[in-house]
Amino acid sequence: MHRPTPTSCAISRRTAALACGLSLLAAACLPAHADDASAYPAKPITIVVGYPPGGSTDLMGRLVGVELSNRLGQPVVIENLGGAGGTIGAQKVASAAPDGYTLLVGANNELAIAKLVTRNVKYGVDNFTPIGLIGSQPMVLVASPKSGVKNADEFTRLVKKNPGKFSYGSSGVGTALHLAGEMVKEQGGLFMTHIPYRGVAPLTNDLIGNNLEFGVFVLSSGLPHIRAGKVIALGTTEARRAQATPDIPALAEFPQFKNVDITSWFALMAPAHLPQPIAAKLKKALGETLASPDFRQKMAAAGSGVASPDVDMNRFLKDEIAKYTKIVQFARIEE
Q1: Omega into 255 within 30° of 0, i.e. cis?
Q2: Cα Rg of the chain (Å, integer)
Q3: Is the CB of residue 266 less than 8 Å from the CB of residue 134?
Q4: Are residues 67 and 146 in the same domain?
Q5: What is the DSSP letter of 308?
Q6: Which residue has the higher pLDDT, 326 or 128?
Q7: What is the CATH number of the domain that holds 96?
Q8: Are 185 and 86 in a shared domain?
Q9: How far apart are CA 105 and CA 278, in angstroms?
Q10: Is residue 23 part of a domain?
Q11: Of 34-48, 93-107, 245-259, which range is least confident?
Q12: Roughly what angle, to the nearest 10 degrees, separates helices 219-227 and 56-72?
């Protein structure tokens, strides 16, 4: 019988120890996949919002952040990274590690529209893992007191009688507000000039100051000024009246605008290639959030409807991009 020499035994032990060490090192270097998901989340989560504090997307991020924190057992930190219509924040999340610790609460501006109108946007929806739709709210077409119009029919007659004379404002080129205004123009066969503003505040000032005839707001932004009588609501942009404002007609109630149906929506997104077990945990937490009576009440107070947790996000995003593509082509929008 062959007996191993002491030297060969030592070499075998060293080889085994080295192999074991390399195996442990390799395991430590593996990306977070299913085996690590049971510990998720093990540290605070960051939700990036691509806008300054105080806007509608920021509000959605904060409402969702509180709920996710309660359900996942870790702090959720909101990082406001404003600029370029939300695309700076979206790009950060698209480039982040797919580990579930960097998420985006984004709107249609940066998720579905920006790439259609801005050449330097480098990401697309394929760079994200959709967690789910949070909710939506309509936009509202308003008139300044100077215009003298009180409803959508008067608005249509006035603009058609004076093609090119009147202007409408939005919070910027390529925003959902801009595209809503262009949809109104296309559906009504109207010729108006678009005036892009750097945000809602200067748009509001010009409307209230009678320096601009018409404008498009997200409902939650416009409602205080409508209630105060500073601007006149002509109609909301969803197919049906908003639950929060049953006294304001939907533009679709008027025959010339029967196909107007466009909303400002908000979604929770993660970087692409997020491990499925982590995505499942986040989707479960979001689904519980959407069903929460307290969350639904806060959303209603902000003028927003709550999305169904059963929305197929891939189909939803595809349909939204197709809709916006038609509007962008009609209006020849490009930056």
Answers
A1: no
A2: 25
A3: yes
A4: no
A5: P
A6: 128
A7: 3.40.190.150
A8: no
A9: 17
A10: no
A11: 34-48
A12: 120
298 found inside a domain:
yes
Q: How confident is the model at residue 174 (pLDDT cuts 50, 70, 90)?
A: confident
Query: What's the pLDDT score for residue 19?
Result: 47
Residues 222 and 296 in one domain: no
Q: What is the pTM of this model?
A: 0.79
Q: Do 155 and 252 fall within a single domain? A: yes
Structural contact between residues 177 and 324, judged by C-beta atoms closer than 8 angstroms: no
Q: Cα separations (Å) of 51 from 31, 46, 88, 196?
A: 31, 15, 9, 17
Both tokens assigned to 185: 């123009």
Q: For residue 335, what pLDDT is reported?
A: 66
Q: Which residue, among 65, 67, 49, has the nearest Cα to 57 in the 3D structure? A: 49
Copy the structure tokens of residue 78: 């909101």
Whether 105 and 64 have beta carbons less than 8 Å apart is answered as yes
For residue 39, give both structure tokens: 């510990």
Residue 23 in this model has a pLDDT that exceeds 60: no
State the DSSP string of 210-263. Answer: TS-SEEEEEHHHHHHHHHTTSSEEEEESSSS--TT-TTSPBGGGSGGGTT---E
Give the chain's domain count.
2
* Helix, strand, coil share of the chain (percent; to 5): 50, 20, 35
Angle at 41 between CA 38 and CA 46, to 5 degrees: 155
Residue 5 confidence (pLDDT)? 52
